[in-house]
Amino acid sequence: MDPVRNPYAPGAGQRPPELAGRDRELDAFSVVLERVAKARPERSLVLVGLRGVGKTVLLNALRSAALQQLWGTGKIEARPGQSVRGPLASALHRGVREIAHRHRDPERVDDFLGVLKAFALKSGNGRWHPGISVPAARGRADSGDMEIDLAELLLDAAELAGDVGVGIGLFLDEMQDLQSGDIDALCGACHELSQNGAPLVVVGAGLPHLPAVLSASKSYSERLFRYARIDRLDRQSADHALAAPAAEEGVTFTSDALDALYTATDGYPYFIQAYGKSVWDNAPGTPVTAEDVRVALPEAEAELAVGFFGSRYERATPAEREYMRAMADLGLENGDSPVATSAVASLLGRKPASLSPARDSLLKKGLVYAAERGTVAFTVPHFGRFLRQHAA
């Protein structure tokens, strides 16, 4: 079929043509937006799940929903070892710019921008470049203590948004990569916002162990956030994600083809887009059959092996690869569910303590996560299967 008309979009964080299976999260967030704007108490939101389940896509969709309600929004992606102060200041600056033109008191806006500038200048680089011409404020959000400064800054931003009857949304991707001090500050700021009923919400997205990271920071974090576990799609939603955009182009799938695609993708949104794209490019016409799927599978798997799986495998050191291969071998019988670290050591004939450096490095690189105490699991679905088939 015509590749130009191919509707599938297997890009990282790229919105698919049909955002299937996420209506519950979108509807719940609409309620949050309305409640916060009416000064009703509401918790911030954290999306958790494996890579490839569409967390970033959903995060962007929630941000779009906030923008439709005329909220100010800003988004950042946390990076390991990087302070969030500078990126957060830039994101909040954008959010405030989106609402500032509706504010009746320009001096109030300038006062806040002075506080924002003072906060940003404490990032350590000694400069602030986005174009805030007002002087930095003194005595507000400039103590150098991130927990104090962030709470003061977000409360001031929320008050500014409340003046025009809206809120501000801060959207944080890869939230598990925040430094421990920044996580402490973020939890503390969310606590202050909640206590004050301030119209500002934080929406984070991260790997499955993110709730444990937040809980280790503040014991009350489970009450600060509403956690939404984002998982693979059920069969009906997965079929819809494939069939709906194809139908827009006059193409249908046989039931056997949809069976074969669900078996191949396991309902993971990224795989649905990747396999869908390959099947479209290889199928001679409509309807798409199970035989068309069978012919296209090797091409899709080869592309995933290089871009989705291979790029991550290449980041690992030889010791880390050995550890992951052992995990994959142990996962053969349990569908790559979490495996005990003691079992990995036993399989490799090593003492658990000697493998700690490799395990800890894999955790920092985001290739595995600690599912629960004494166990590890891959952050990427089907990664164990990839290792068993391709990694020597």
UniProtKB/TrEMBL annotation:
PROSITE patterns, sorted: CYTC (PS51007)
RNA-binding recorded as keyword: no
Entry-linked InterPro entries: AAA_16, Cyt_c-like_dom, P-loop_NTPase
Region (Disordered): 1-20
Domain of life, per lineage: Bacteria
GO molecular function: ATP binding
The protein's name: ATP-binding protein
Organism expressing this protein natively: Motilibacter deserti
